[in-house]
């Protein structure tokens, strides 16, 4: 890796040349002097009111990939960090140039971008600046960043989480692909959901254009916990060739984060926006969220998927007005047929007979998919250690736990004195 020059060195400054070591005007002047050598005297300094966070997200991923499209021309200060230790998707450490205190240059567009650290007596902050000499190339550069970011987003799921410090972005790999045939749902519901998904992303939404239908759609998945809403969402996310964004609503969700989320996803459309546990939207933010959904362009090209375990808590305004959530699908408790199918696919027949499996399908009435998965786990563990299994006993324990959960009654003689530390 070549050694980049540093423009401002602490030992070269004094009160006569710079009133404050971190006076960013001096830094910008030094940056301009360097860039004029590359871009010529037509150099312009550009700031933005809309925020360019997506540009820096793209830069970060280009740096991780050692992409030749980007160069690091120089560092700004010699007493501010110039590299960052990151963890890659496979949990390995990697050292990359810091997004702050470095000058990034894109030769193809003759654009330089810099995030300058500014330290003053009353506050510390960073400021973003773009240098260019051709506005047309600058717009091409911004579009390039969007397209690059969109292609990067196809490799995994982008997670946006509202935090006290603002919207936090991360990326998760789909480590276990859930195939559509593995999703256990009422067949009509399953067909309707996947058909609407496929048509939305088929040939640039040609179906919507052909029938003059607004190119946006929203579905709400509701039902009791543990019956496959998340599995269905994972299957959808892993089976479309479009960016998928998962938005984690928290107590910190507010008007600013709502605006930022929809600004981000609109640029990446056509894409999928998933909002799990949508009923947890803070009360004071709900009207802003509804107004955003009603916006003429904020949902263009967006397939919105909301989920909730508690449909009674959902604001009726969400599903009683076109353009918000167009359809609501109940993800029901599995019936006898689905319970048998699930247990069969889990491989329970390696431990029990066909007749026992038929009986289990009846005896597990009321259990969720998650509880059926626990049944399989318990059966496998007991078989592994005992080479035999008492399936009826395991089912009885699960049914008893289910009753206690429903009644919130955990204090029976059997449990008294056994909980605690």
Automatic annotation (TrEMBL):
InterPro entries the UniProt entry points to: AAA+_ATPase, ATPase_AAA_core, ATPase_AAA_CS, Mitochondrial_chaperone_BCS1, P-loop_NTPase
Q: Where is the AAA+ ATPase domain?
A: 215-335
Enumerate the UniProt keywords alphabetically.
ATP-binding, Nucleotide-binding
**Where are the annotated coiled coils located?**
none
MF term (GO), any = ATP hydrolysis activity
A matching Pfam family: AAA
Would I find Plastid among this entry's keywords? no
UniProt cross-references to PANTHER family, sorted A to Z: BCS1 AAA-TYPE ATPASE
Q: Which family does it belong to?
A: Belongs to the AAA ATPase family. BCS1 subfamily.
The name under which this protein is listed is: ATP-binding protein
The organism encoding this protein is Oceanobacillus bengalensis
Q: What is the lineage of its organism?
A: Bacteria, Bacillati, Bacillota, Bacilli, Bacillales
